[in-house]
Amino acid sequence: MNDTRPNIIFIMSDDHAAHAMSCYDSRINQTPNLDRIANEGTRFDNCFCTNSICAPSRATILTGLYNHINGVKTLRDSLDNRITTFPSLLQKDGYQTSIIGKWHLGHGPENDPAGFDHWSIFPGQGSYFNPTFIENGVEKKVNGYVTDVVTDLSIDWMNGRDRERPFLLLCHHKAPHRHWLVDEKHAHLYEDTDIPEPPTFDDDYSNRSKAAAAARMTIERDMNEKDYKVPLPAGLTERELKSWKYQRYIKDYLRCIASIDDNVGRILDYLDDEGLTDNTIVIYTSDQGFFLGEHGWYDKRFMYEESLRMPFIVRYPKEIKPGSTVPQIAVNVDFAPTLLDYAGAPVPEEMQGYSLRPLLNGETTGNWRTAMYYRYWMHLAQHNVCAHYGIRTDRYKLIYYYGEALGATGAIDESWTPEWELFDLECDPMELNNVHADSAYSDIVKQLHEQLESLRREIQDLD
Question: What is the pTM of this model?
Answer without folding.
Answer: 0.96
